[in-house]
């Protein structure tokens, strides 16, 4: 388990978002967490979270180093995502991630969304290195401020890019992923 004092504060592009990273030396994974309060309802947060295949986000994927992207709707509450990323690091092969998403309303004030590493015959492993990623988002309704809905957003991400990747690169990739 990771000790609380081992978390390192990292610079966020938004000063209202508190971001931290850690590195699990036992299994080579990078871990990131972020917290923020946003001016939006839980419903608005849900709409943003599940608009993964919009044109804007599709474009951002490719600008951010993505080379391929697929999604299969499994149920009304879950999807299967496949993305391929060029890490833009000399001599490092592209990484392929396959994750299953699932979301649910815990109660009228809380929604959670989890993305877990997946294996699925519909996406056989190709020439890329199959990396792994797990993430968890929690949206909690807060009291309105001057009539504006408030939601506390907590995000935790764990990534294993597989192979030897320096800690500094792993941490930078965690930060860029949480944006």
Features:
179 residues, ten-stranded mixed beta sheet, globular, 3 helices, alpha+beta, 16% helix
Structure description:
By secondary structure, this protein is α+β, with helices and mostly antiparallel strands. The chain is built from three helices and ten strands. It has helices at 42-49, 55-63, 167-178, and strands spanning 8-10, 18-24, 29-38, 66-75, 78-85, 95-107, 110-117, 129-130, 132-145, 148-160. Strands 1, 2, 3, 4, 5, 6, 7, 8, 9 and 10 form a ten-stranded mixed β-sheet that branches. Strand 4 and strand 5 form a beta hairpin. The longest helix has 12 residues, at 167-178.
Q: Can you describe this structure in just a few lines?
A:
The chain has 3 helices and 10 strands, in the order βββααβββββββα. By secondary structure, it is of the alpha+beta class.
Rg (C-alpha, Å): 17 Å
The percent of residues in helical segments reads 10-25%
Low-confidence blocks of residues: none
What is the terminal-to-terminal distance?
Answer: 25 Å
Mean pLDDT: 84
**What shape does the CA trace take?**
globular
- SSE order in H/E notation? EEEHHEEEEEEEH
Largest sheet: 10 strands, mixed
Strand fraction band? over 45%
Structural class based on helices, strands and sheet pairing: alpha+beta
Strand tally is 10
Q: So how many helices?
A: 3
């Amino acid at each position: 388990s990771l000790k609380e004092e081992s978390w390192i504060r990292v610079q966020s592009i938004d000063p209202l978002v508190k971001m931290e990273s850690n590195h699990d030396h036992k299994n080579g994974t990078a871990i990131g967490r972020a917290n923020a309060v946003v001016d939006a309802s839980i419903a608005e947060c849900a709409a943003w979270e599940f608009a993964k295949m919009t044109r804007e986000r599709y474009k951002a994927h490719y600008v951010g180093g993505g080379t391929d992207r697929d999604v299969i709707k499994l149920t009304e509450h879950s999807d299967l995502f496949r993305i391929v990323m060029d890490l833009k690091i000399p001599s490092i092969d592209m990484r392929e991630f396959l994750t299953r998403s699932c979301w649910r309303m815990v109660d009228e004030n809380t929604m959670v969304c989890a993305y877990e590493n997946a294996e699925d015959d519909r996406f056989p492993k190709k020439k890329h290195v199959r990396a792994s990623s797990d993430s968890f988002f929690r949206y909690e309704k807060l009291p309105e401020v001057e009539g504006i809905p408030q939601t506390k957003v907590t995000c935790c991400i764990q990534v294993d890019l597989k192979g030897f990747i320096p800690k500094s690169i792993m941490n930078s990739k965690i930060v860029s992923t949480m944006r």
